[in-house]
Amino acid sequence: SRQTQTGRPLLAPSLPPPGPCVERAGHGLKGAMDPNQLAQLEGFCNALYNAKSEAERAQAHQTLLPLVQNPQCMPQLQFVLAHTSSPHALIFSATGLMKLITSHWTCVSDQQKEEMRNFLFDYLAKNGPDLYRSAPMGVSPVVRLLCRVIKLAWLEGPQYQNVTERVGQFLSSSPLHWVLGLEIYTDLTTDMQPSVGPSMSRFRRTALSFRDTALPTIFTIALQTLQQVTTGQIAVADKNEERRLMKQVLQLACNCLSFDFMGTIPDETSDEQSTVMVPHSWNMLRDEGIPKLFFDLFSRSCSYHWTECAKFCLQCLVLLAALRRSFFQKEEDRTKLLGSMMQGTTGVLASKMGLQDHGCYHELCRLLGKINATHQLNELCATEQFQVWIEQVYSFTMDSLRHWEVMPNSKHYLLGFWASMVNPVIVLAEKAPKALEVYIQQITLAYVESRLFMAEASADPNNSFDWDDPLQDEVLRAEQLEVLSNLGRCRYQDTAQYIMKHFEEISRLGQQGAMPQPVFENKMTWLVYMMGALVGGHASTKTSRSDTECAPTHVVNGELAGRIFRLVNLTDQQAAPSEGLELAYLYFLEQFRKVYIGEHAKQVVQQQVSERLATVLGLEDENAVLGLLINKIGKNLQQRFGLELVVKRTLALFHELAAGINIVHTSDRSPHLIVSGRLLLKNDMVKYILSNHASPQFGFLTHSLQYGKYRTMYYHTLGKLLFMDIRDNREAFEKFMEPQSQILNTLWQQSCQGPAALRQDTCKGPLIGLCRDLRGIGLACTGCEPYGMLFDWLVDNPKNPGSSRVTLFSRALDAWWDDPEVTTPLLKFMAEFVYNKAQRITFDQSSPNGILLFREASTILVTYGTRILQRTQFRDLYVEKYKGIGVCLDMFSHALHGNYTNFGVFELYSDNSLSKSMLLALQMCLAVPLQELTAYLKALKPYYYFLELATRSHMSQVMELEPVMLTTLIQSVEEGLLSFENSVSMQCCATVDNIISYFYQQCSNKSRSTPEQERVRRFLSEAPQALQKILHVMLQLVMTGEFFSTWSISRPLLGLVLLHENYYLQLKDQLVASQIEERRAKLRGYFDDLMNGVENNLTTKNKDHFTRNLYNFAQVVRTLS
Questions:
Q1: What is the DSSP string of 103-115?
Q2: Of 84, 149, 163, nearest in space to 112 by CA
């Protein structure tokens, strides 16, 4: 099995057969061992798990490692498993066998599989109960090994699928045998779940077959066992054994219900399974007594204090509550299930049984949330128990909010329960139960109170609460604010007034000094966040029935905003700001922006709007409202630049305002397009920023070198606004660029005196800033006109390119090539400058600008590349070398793919720009070791993009490399084929296709001999194994189903087969021979069908025919594994 750092393991056998088992532990291990050998091996196993020193553990590891690496050592491990009395040797042999059979399953014969399966069943039947008593930790590895054997062999015939018969023998024996049988089922249902990774498609088929054959029987056994326990038919004398049995069977029931029935492999990061897609044939779940069974078992478990069993009962009920609607043949069946659920949860809530345990409390919150999520409000209201049930849930929620510090994350499900009821209550209006609106309102107010208590507690440095503070955890905070924004919509005005009352009171206490400053800041931060959540949640919703008698929504929004803006004015005068409060302001402004856009749309469409947001805020019009947002953005950039996160969020809000396009539906339901950038251009503050963008007032520009990325975002936003305003007005562009012109001219004059003049600390900051600024403006150039202005501003002397301002950057690289703080932003700017995105770079046919642009990129590459390849000492390899190489290759790839340069001109006029830069770029690729390439793949993705472009159009230059160098590049492509990054593996396929097509073309052209043909022949004779390995890898990827695009892999694969025909036949024979006897004829037939009708050429028609054959081959060959 082969595994790369970032790639897929290959499960098909590799070409050389495995060697003989390594002989260790003082004697040759050949199956059976004498007692001394076994004792010696047990000693090593004991040392591995319980070493007295690190040296002893290392020696044991070195001795035992070969046993779990070679498939020929399986008999020895089985012997140890069968004869050892040491728990550590048992664990080692079971886990070692599991690793070996998983990696080398195709090497195991049918007889070995059958023997191993029978041996494990017999071993557990004979030794399992004793192991439970003496060494319980040794049971699980053996059970897991058995389950893995069953899983791997499942598709190989019905004789491997009779698992229920074999395990049935355990279930009719002693209590410990019973527990053992249930543990086999529990582990099997877990292992059978399909997951992302090697052999994914095969395991998915296994899981679906298991679902249809064994899973219903297993689940029925679990249910019957539970029913027998409840009715007293099963009586276990030892309560500890009964607890173990109950826990095992409940866990099994939970595994069965949470099985991935559709084989969709859901995201594991979420613990919520939205719908349980049980098959229609699972009639046992239609029994209306099933929920009662689990509630009874929950009650029984709580009475015995079996908290784990109680938790599993509730988990099963959560899954039952999530059964798909279409599973029920009649609606009344579903209603009965709902009734049972409501009755059971009412009983638990009334008695508070088991809720002292945090696990049970959490699962009950999940259960209530799930019942509500899977039923509509009118369905819940229609049940008899609704009134009692909803009262109990309300009391439970209020009680939970009073004790906010206990299990705060579990309350998310409870709050979600009430938040999801808001919309139906508003829509149903008078038809909704009267009490619901009052309940929701009370819970909303209690929730607000609980956040303020939390704020006070988190301000105390001595608090000992074990909870995450949402003010410090952005994800947690976002979840809680989303819930509040929904809850607040029910009685919006009342909730807003309540929050404003707290706001006024805390402001008064804070100003009087009657409240400690940390408590004041935390409470105000929460209030600002909550006000933002209210405004954002109500920006585009219908009003509730209770709102009709109150003030209009925009008046309330105006009152909320007015308080925030007054507080902002106060805190803006303070020298030491609170970062939390500043971030809360920005959250509020982002939510308020949505309201503002909506109000502006009303003003545009309905001129006769009686009351406007601006009126409430005491402002003239909606543009003045926008001024409040922009003023805060300006103040933050001028004064709050010491808080990096505040600067980042401020610029993100500014960019959103400048680039935002909103479709707003007004009261007459007509959609209107609002381009918020155009609104900004009317604002005085924006005009001021555009006119004074480089002013020292904006302290963040010069605060720190690490702030460079924020300069890029700042100028990206300003560039968008500028080009929206001036269109193609060059005078206005020149005026805007004056500060950059001054810096550029100063640096240019310095550069004319030589590299040493530029290599001064006084030049470093301005140079980095210039590169960051220009990259931001480059990002804003989305069309031909803006890009043309930027190009002409930089290439100001096209008739004498050497004296153009753009050459400053190659001179700066000459001086600063070894300082990544300069080279990274400079190279990133050039990569953006030469990037022809959206076809923005279009020059006249008679213009030499395309060639000038490419030559400048070439000069930059050569200047940087020559020096970085000569450097040998690095403090940080990634920052100082690989990051720069990655950006440099990105720039060169953009220049090669820009489609604005006729590359034939260079060779025609003996210009070596292309050949020199191409050779250097290839040398940069060769300077990255394979191990580093996979470790830093994210930064080095341009490596593969460049190789694809180089082999597509410049293969003759690539062939100028020595065969050993070309082999190295092909090895990196082989590694890239195994990458989990789809873009990388696709580019590698294209690269191989380019190389093979070129080779095939040169080998087929027999009319005359050329230097290119000689180079190809030399490479194929000196290093044939390079492409042969790729052929082998590609075949393995196809046969294991690990490559997602058959079309992409088929194009190069055909060329490889035609170019290395003899090797392909040899490989085919070896792959056939590696199969067991019964499958060899089948696989040989599949290989014959693969080449059926395929001709000896690489025409598109022939490639398409091969692609169809390969698709069929990939489908059928996987049925063998």
A1: HSGGGS-HHHHHH
A2: 149
Q: Are strands 661-665 and 671-675 parallel, antiparallel or unpaired?
A: antiparallel
Model pTM score: 0.83
Instruction: Compute the distance between CA of residue 948 and CA of residue 955 in angstroms, rounded to an integer.
Output: 10
pLDDT (tens digit per residue) in 1049-1096 = 999 999 999 999 999 999 999 888 877 777 889 999 999 999 999 999
Residue for token digits 């009395």?
85
Give, in order, the Cα–Cα distances in Å from 350 to each of 236, 366, 396, 1040: 31, 17, 9, 56
Instruction: Say how far apart CA 963 and CA 1026 lie, in whole Å.
Output: 10
12 DSSP 8-state letter:
S
Q: Are 531 and 588 spatial neighbours (Cβ–Cβ below 8 Å)? A: yes
Helices and strands, number each (H, E), in the chain: 54, 2
Task: HSE, CB side, 13 Å, CA atoms: give it for residue 552.
Answer: 11
Mean pLDDT of 868-878: 91
| Phi, psi of 339, rounded to the nearest 5 degrees | -60, -45
**Amino acid at site 127:** N
How far is residue 396's CA from residue 986's CA, in Å, rounded to a whole number? 55
Please report which confidence band the pLDDT of residue 676 belongs to, taking 50, 70 and 90 as the band edges: confident
Which range is least confidently modeled, 2-6, 484-488, 742-746? 2-6
- How many whole angstroms separate alpha carbon 642 and alpha carbon 578? 11
* Cα(763)–Cα(826) distance, integer angstroms: 14
For the segment 1091-1116, what is each residue's pLDDT rounded down to a tens digit? 999 999 999 999 999 999 999 999 88
Contact criterion met (CB below 8 Å) for 229 and 297:
yes
Pair of tokens at residue 1041: 């189903």
Q: Which of 848, 970, 836, 985 is nearest to 913 (CA)?
A: 848
**Is the Cβ–Cβ distance between 481 and 531 less than 8 Å?**
no
What values do phi and psi take at 661, rounded to 5? -125, 120
Q: Which residues of 103-112 are buried (b: 16+ CB within 10 A; e: fewer)?
A: bbbbbbebee
Q: Per DSSP, what are the bridge partners of residue 443?
A: none
Between CA 330 and CA 325 the distance in angstroms is 10
Which long-range contacts does 509-516 make (Cβ < 8 Å, 24+ apart)? 516/459
Angle, vertex CA 979, rays to CA 976 and CA 980, nearest 5: 155
**Percent of the chain topping pLDDT 70:** 92
Q: Which amino acid is at 728?
A: D
Structure tokens at 1113: 């081959």
Give phi and psi for 724, each to the nearest 5.
Answer: -70, -30
Give me 172's structure tokens. 């009719």
| 219/192 Cα distance (integer angstroms) | 14
pLDDT at residue 655 tops 80: yes
Q: Among residues 307, 507, 545, which one has the least CA distance to residue 424?
A: 545
The pLDDT assigned to 666 comes to 59
> In whole angstroms, what is the distance from residue 508 CA to residue 499 CA?
14
Instruction: Express each pLDDT in 45-81 by its tens digit.
Output: 888 888 788 888 888 888 888 888 888 888 888 888 8
Helix H or strand E segment including 675: strand 671-675
Per-residue b or e along 889-913, where b marks 16 or more CB atoms closer than 10 Å to that residue's CB: bbbbbbbbbbebbeeeebeeeeeeb
- Phi, psi for residue 32 in degrees, rounded to 5: -70, 150
Residue 464: pLDDT band with limits 50, 70, 90: low
Q: Which helix (H) or strand (E) segment is 867 a member of?
A: helix 849-870
5: left (phi over 0), alpha (psi -120 to 50) or beta: alpha
Find out whether 910 and 952 touch, Cβ atoms under 8 Å.
no
Count the neighbouring beta carbons within 10 Å of the beta carbon of residue 224. Answer: 15
Q: Tally the residues of the chain.
A: 1121
Cβ–Cβ under 8 Å, residues 588 and 632: no
- What per-residue confidence (pLDDT) applies to 235? 73
